[in-house]
Amino acid sequence: MLDISFEQTRLYQDLKQQAEEQGLEQGRQEEAIKLVLRILAKKFREVPTQLTIQIEGLSLQNLEALADALLDFASLDDLVSWLQRLARIKTK
């Protein structure tokens, strides 16, 4: 019989690497959410709960795009418009 453990198999190693990569991605996403919300709070004082919920649901790619865009926002209305445009793009 082969003297090999499941942890030594290629399948296990691949699954372990995938899980680590997903963990890193999730960590980056959580940090991006915190950063965007912190910048918005500093710029506009208070961010309504509904907008916070929408931001928390964004992908890392969309959070990065929002981080770039929010530097040009003059009001929370600009954020609302940006999120609405994103939603329209997703539904097409």
What does this molecule look like?
This protein is mainly α and 92 residues long. It has one domain. 75% of the residues lie in helices and 0% in strands. Helix 1 packs parallel to helix 3. The mean pLDDT is 88.
Strand content: under 5%
Output mean pLDDT.
88
Instruction: Tell the overall outline.
Output: elongated
**Number of extended strands:** 0
Q: What's the gyration radius in Å?
A: 19 Å
**Could you estimate the helical fraction of the residues in percent?**
over 70%
Give the count of helical stretches. Answer: 4
Write the H/E string, N to C.
HHHH
Runs in which pLDDT lies below 50 for 5 or more consecutive residues are none
The N- to C-terminal Cα distance equals 56 Å
Q: Specify the biggest β-sheet.
A: none
**What is the domain tally?**
1
Helix- and strand-based class? mainly alpha
Task: Provide key terms for this protein.
92 residues; mainly alpha
Strand and helix map with partners:
Elements: H1 10-44, H2 49-56, H3 60-69, H4 76-91
Helix pairs in contact: 1-3
Q: In brief, what are we looking at here?
A:
Helix content is 75%, strand content 0%.
